[in-house]
Structure formats: C-alpha cells, structure tokens
Design a protein that fits this description.
Blueprint lengths: L1 E2 L37 E2 L17 E13 L4 E12 L3 E7 L4 E6 L2 E2 L1 E6 L2 E5 L10 E9 L13 E2 L4 E2 L21 E10 L3 E4 L2 E8 L2 E12 L6 E4 L1 E8 L2 E8 L4 H11 L2 H12 L6 E7 L5 E2 L7 E3 L4 H9 L7 E3 L6 H17 L5 H12 L3 H5 L13 H18 L1 H14 L3 E3 L1 H12 L4 H8 L15
Parallel strand pairs: 2-5, 3-13, 19-20, 20-22, 23-24
Antiparallel strand pairs: 1-21, 3-4, 4-10, 5-9, 6-7, 6-10, 8-9, 11-12, 12-17, 13-16, 14-17, 15-16, 18-19
The structure holds zinc ion (ZN).
InterPro entries: Aminopeptidase_N-like_N (IPR045357), Aminopeptidase_N-like_N_sf (IPR042097), Peptidase_M1 (IPR001930), Peptidase_M1_aminopeptidases (IPR050344), Peptidase_M1_dom (IPR014782), Peptidase_M4/M1_CTD_sf (IPR027268)
Keywords: Aminopeptidase, Hydrolase, Metal-binding, Metalloprotease, Protease, Signal, Zinc
EC number: 3.4.11.2
C-alpha cells in the first residue's frame, strides 16, 4: 500500500523489455469416507495474530476460494456465494470464518450445517459431522447485504460511486464481500465471478476466463492460479478503457475508469503502459516475476491510497513512476512472499520503498547511498521517527511513514555493509525460496547472516528497533 501523501523519490525516466510467466496449480486429493475423529476440537475464532485477534481462524487451511458475487448499484446490495475448499489442520467439531454480511445458508460437503454469528465479523459453523484433519471439505456460504453500512476495526472499506465499485483495502477487505480465513498467513488460489450491468466490465486478479451475457447483465469469471492473500483479492465493476497485451508470455490487463475526466484518463493509460517495462527491470534485480499476469487498474473512486492487489495493483488516479515501481515491487514483497504476522509489515513496505530508491538510482536519480545519508540527516532530530519499532509497530502504526522509510533505509544500509553482489543475491534468494509463501523478520535476518557470513543481530536491532538514529559507522552501513 502507499498513501497519496507519501512520496520518497522524484519521478525519473525509464526504458526496458519484458517478463516471464507461470504454472498451473495442483488440485488437492480428497480421500472419501474418513473415520470420524474421536476427540474433535472447537476451532479458535482467530488465527493467532495479536494485532487483530479475530482475523483468520484456528484449524483451517483454505486451499481455494470460488467466489460468485452480484452487485446492484440501485440498492447497494451485494449477493454472494463463497465456496471454500478447506483442509483442516486439526479435527474440528466447529470452526469459524470471517464475514461481515448477513448469512443465509451454509453447507459442508453438500450437507446443511448449523451456523450463527457470535460477533459481526465472525461466522461460526457446526457441520453435521466433525472435520477430519488433512481431509479436504467444501464449505459453501450464501450471504447478502449492503457492505457500505458496515465497519470493522475502525475501517469502512466499501468504495462505491454511481457507476463504479472497487474492493480495495488493507489490512482488511475480504469480509465485506466474501467468506474468508482472513489473514495473509493462509493463502489460496481463487476463482472470482462478478455479475453486474452488461454495459460494465468486471476486473479482478489473475486472468479473465469467460464473460457471459444474460439479458441486461454480464457475468465475468477471473482466475488466480497462484496462492494469494485474502486482502489482495479484489474486484472492480464499472466502465473501463481496457488494454490487453502479451509480451514474452506474460499477459497484461489494464483498466482505466471512464468516470475519470478525459485528461486524467489518457494520462492514466499512458502511465499504466510502463507496467511491463518496470516489471522487466524488477526481474533483473529480484528474479522471475511470480505470477501469470500483470497490469493495473485506475479507479475513479477516492481511495486515498494505491494497493498492490496481486497481478493488478489499484491506483487512485494516474500513477507516477515511483508509485508504479512501489506497487509492482510488492508483487514480490507482500504478494508472493507474504506476511507471517502483521507486525512484520516492513517486509512489505520497507522493501517496496527500497525498490523505488534502487529504481531511481538506475534511472537518473541520486545513488541509494546518497539517499540513505540524506534521509538519515533529515530525520536525525525527529523523535517520533525513531520511536517506531519496525519489528512491532503496533496495529495502529502498520502504515506509519517510518515503516516505509526506515525500512527502506535499513535495506540500503545492509546493501552498503554486505556489498552489492551479496545483497542482491540475498533478495533473489529470499523471493525464490519463499515464492508464494510467507516470511518473517527473523527469517530474513537469518538468511542475511547466512549469505553475508556476518553476524547481523546488532545491525538489525540498531536499524529496526533502537529509539534513536543509527550512529554514522561502517557497521551501520553509513560509512
Ligand atoms: Zn506499499
């Protein structure tokens, strides 16, 4: 994510070529007639992240989501069915999902299940027979309601105008429109099908599969073949100028809202055409692009931030080059390598911000080391900036500017300390080894120590945690 207010590097010039692509998912095996478990548990109402204790749920690994939604602009009503392929990680007599809308039906493997909503965000499901650890089940949830009337954790996420709706938000967005195990630790593949007026387009993650016209309505099916976090799943429904291209096997799909003023529309389209070249440059630094498609969407909705929705970032207005670099870098950092815990958010934002600095360095901007020294000098007298502990900023501070900037400074300091060759090998190994998985600060430090052959606990503690500016020393990467 990046808010409109944050801008770290001046826009610069670019050139380049293309990218690579991807693979098909493997489908899960489903043994039939398992033995009923002797002592099934009640699944916890949260996955165990103290920042938002109700996020996610205990005992579940969602393998796949098949979401079908219809949105009615006249009534503001969203009607949906989410089918989840769930692999239980424990024997469960009861389990939970996260969904804010009222629920009408729940089935588990085709049989009606008992359900209730003990809290607005929680859907509690009791299947007729306990779930068996390791044996996949299909859970189908039917629901409907007006998402614009609902808030959770201080967030009101529903962005809708007279002729466009877009579901874009972090850390939470899923429970406004689908039943989810809503935590970045549990990633899954997705099919997303959206029904709306026939004169509108529906845009989502991955690749378009099919568009079907039925009277005055159109139903559009999108597929994401690679694991995705729940907050990164999105759809946008409205009138768009769409461009579809393909270069070196990587499909690109961009969309610009026709509700924007015409001058903004053409600037937005021009800007989005840089997506392929920037992605190609990022590949030279970070290794192969992790997904089957790329692109972007510029919305007319007053989002106030851009978000790195997997394969298709959403931008509020024509994106500047630095913002494109930021959201596209998130495809590696945040989307492919996702957070184990929200407290590690600098692994997303610090890394995406660092790639802006690294891009600028190669495209006419200052060297990243000059930028680092300048950024440190700018902040040296600031007390709040150094008070944010990047390994545990707190739920209310995950998007604090210090998470972005101090995170990026940490990486440049590390680069200066361990050297160019080892540093980029570190980032490429990180994105390769954890591709489509998750990571933590501890795991990154461990890998940095292995690749550099250096003891780095003091370095990381100084840069990420100490409530004061790092001393301008060689070991802090400043000399
Ligand atoms: Zn970001």
């Amino acid at each position: 994510m990046r808010s409109r207010a944050v801008r770290l590097v001046a826009p610069v010039l670019v050139l380049a070529v293309t990218a690579l692509a991807a693979l098909a998912p493997s489908s899960a095996a489903r043994p039939s007639n398992p033995m009923p478990p002797a002592r099934p548990q009640v699944g916890a109402s949260g996955i165990g992240d103290p920042y938002w204790p109700l996020d996610g749920n205990g005992g579940l690994d969602v393998r796949h989501y098949d979401i079908a939604v219809r949105y009615d602009f006249d009534t503001g009503r969203l009607t949906g069915t989410t089918t989840l392929r769930v692999r239980p990680t424990a024997d469960l007599s009861r389990f939970g999902l996260d969904l804010l809308l009222p629920v009408s039906t729940v089935t588990v493997d085709g049989r009606p299940a008992t359900f209730d909503k003990p809290a607005r965000h929680e859907l509690r499901i009791t299947p007729q027979e306990p779930l068996v650890r390791g044996t996949d089940v299909d859970v189908v949830v039917g629901y409907a309601g007006d998402p614009s009337r609902i808030s959770y954790a201080g967030e009101s996420r529903w962005l809708v105008g007279a002729d466009e709706v877009v579901t874009v938000g972090q850390p939470h967005m899923a429970p406004w429109w689908f039943a989810a195990n809503d935590h970045p630790r549990d990633k899954a593949t997705f099919d997303i099908t959206v029904t709306g007026p026939a004169s509108y387009q529906a845009v989502s993650n991955g690749l378009p599969v099919q568009r079907t016209l039925t009277g005055a309505e159109a139903t559009t099916h999108w597929r994401s073949a690679h694991p995705m976090t729940t907050y990164s799943a999105f759809f946008a429904l409205g009138r768009y100028d769409v461009e579809q291209t393909s270069r070196a096997g990587l499909a690109s799909y961009t969309a610009v809202s026709r509700s924007l003023p015409s001058s903004e529309r053409s600037r937005a389209a021009t800007s989005l055409r840089r997506t392929g070249a920037i992605t190609a440059w990022l590949e030279t630094r970070l290794g192969p692009y992790p997904f089957e498609s790329t692109g972007g969407l510029v919305t007319s909705q007053r989002v106030g931030y851009a978000l790195e929705n997997q394969t298709r970032p959403v931008y509020p207005g024509p994106p500047a080059r630095g913002l494109l670099v930021h959201e596209l870098a998130h495809q590696w950092f945040g989307d492919s390598v996702s957070l184990q815990r929200w407290r590690d958010i600098w692994l997303n934002e610090g890394f995406a911000t660092f790639m802006e600095v690294a891009y600028a360095e190669r495209h006419g901007g200052p060297s990243a080391q000059q930028w680092l020294r300048g950024a440190r000098d700018d902040q040296v007298g600031s007390r709040w900036f150094w008070r944010v502990d990047l390994t545990d900023p707190g739920a209310g501070r995950i998007f604090d500017p210090a998470v972005y900037q101090r995170g990026a400074m940490t990486l440049q300091a590390l680069r200066h300390r361990i050297g160019e060759r080892r540093f980029w090998r570190l980032l490429r190994t990180w994105t390769h080894d954890r591709r489509h998985g998750t990571g933590s600060t501890w795991a990154f430090r461990t890998l940095a120590e292995r690749i550099s052959g250096q003891q780095l606990d003091d370095f990381f503690s100084t840069w990420l945690r100490e409530p004061r500016p790092p001393a301008p020393t060689r070991s802090n990467g400043l000399h």
